[in-house]
Amino acid sequence: IYIPLYFKKDMQAQIEEKFKECCLILKKGNFLQANEILKEVLVEALDDERIKFAVNCFSFWLNIVQQVENTENPYNRGQILFNEWEEFSVYIKKQRYKPDDLIIYSFKCGIFSIALNNFLELLNVQDFEQKAAITRKIGLCYKKLGEYENARNFLSESNRLHPGNSTVLAELADCFALCGEDRNAKLLFREAFFINAKKIDLRLLDSELIQCLVRKIEEHGFTGDELLEWIPVYGNIFGVFTIKRQLKTQEISKLQQEIYATENELKDPSCNSKLLTPRLCNLYFWLIDHYSLNHEDAPRINEILMRIKILDPFIYQLYNK
C-alpha cells in the first residue's frame, strides 16, 4: 500500500508529540497515565526502537510502583524505589537498544520524585539517628533530580546529626563538585575515603570529579573493595585529593596508632594484603601531609617515603614523579 510521504511525516510528528507528552507526565511520577499514552503511541509505532525500549522500561517499573503503593511505611516505600533504581541501571545496560537519554531521565525524575515525597513525610521524626538517615535520603533524591543546592543542604544536615559518616561525607562532597565547588569537594572526598572507604557506594556518586578518578583506577584492574581502598591513594597521586587540613593532637596520635597496627597486620601471612596495602599507603600520605603542613624536618618525611618504597615501589615511583 502506497502511503504519501507527507502523511508519514505528519504521523511521525504526532508520535513524537505523544511520546514527549508521555515523558512529561512520567517525570511527574504519574506512571499509569504515562503508560496509557505510550500504549496509544505503540499502535502507530510498532517498529520504533525507542518506543519499544520505553515499553520495556515500563514493564520493569509498573509492578514495582504497584508494590510501593501497597507498602505502608513511607521510608520503606522510598527505599524500595532506591534499591530498584540500581537494578534498573543494570537492566538498561543489558538492553540491545542504546538507551534514550530522554526516557532514562524521565524515569529518573519520576522515581526520585515519588521517593522524595515519601521521605519528606518523615522529616519531623525526633530521633537524631533516624532523622540523619531520612535527611540523607532526601538529599540523595534532590541530587538525582538535579537540585544540587537542596541536596547539599539536606546532606549537610545529615552530617550535622550524625558526623563522621564516610558515606554521607562522600555524597556531600559529590554535591559540592556538582555545584562547581571543587575545593570543598576535594577536601570532603579525602576525609570520606580516609574514614572508611569500604562503606562508600560509588553508584550514588555522579560528579565527573570522582567518576573520572574511578575510571582511571579501574584501568589498573582494581574492582570492589580493592578499588575503594585505592581511590584515596590515586586521588593523592593524580591531584584530586589535594586540599589538606591541620590535624588535631588526638588525630595525630590515632593516625600513628593506626599505622603501627596496620604495619603489624601486614606481617601476618594470612592477612588480606590487597586491602591493607592501599590502606597503609593512604595512612602514610596523611602523615607526610601532616609533617609538611607543620614544616617538620625532612628526615621524618624521608623515613615515611622509604616505608612507601618498601611497601609498594610502583606507588612510590608515581608519588615522586
The total strand number stands at 0
Structural class: mainly alpha
- Please provide the ordered H/E string of secondary-structure elements: HHHHHHHHHHHHHHH
Q: Helicity, in percent? A: over 70%
Between the first and last Cα atoms, what is the distance in angstroms?
A: 71 Å
Pick out the low-confidence regions: none
Strand-helix topology:
Layout: H1 5-27, H2 31-44, H3 49-69, H4 74-93, H5 101-120, H6 128-144, H7 148-161, H8 166-178, H9 182-196, H10 208-218, H11 224-237, H12 249-266, H13 273-293, H14 298-311, H15 313-319
Describe this structure as you would to a colleague.
The chain has 15 helices and no strands. The chain is mainly α and 321 residues long. Helix 5 (101-120) runs antiparallel to helix 6 (128-144), helix 11 packs parallel to helix 13 (273-293) and helix 12 packs antiparallel against helix 13 (273-293). The longest helix has 23 residues, at 5-27. The protein is elongated, with a radius of gyration of 25 Å.
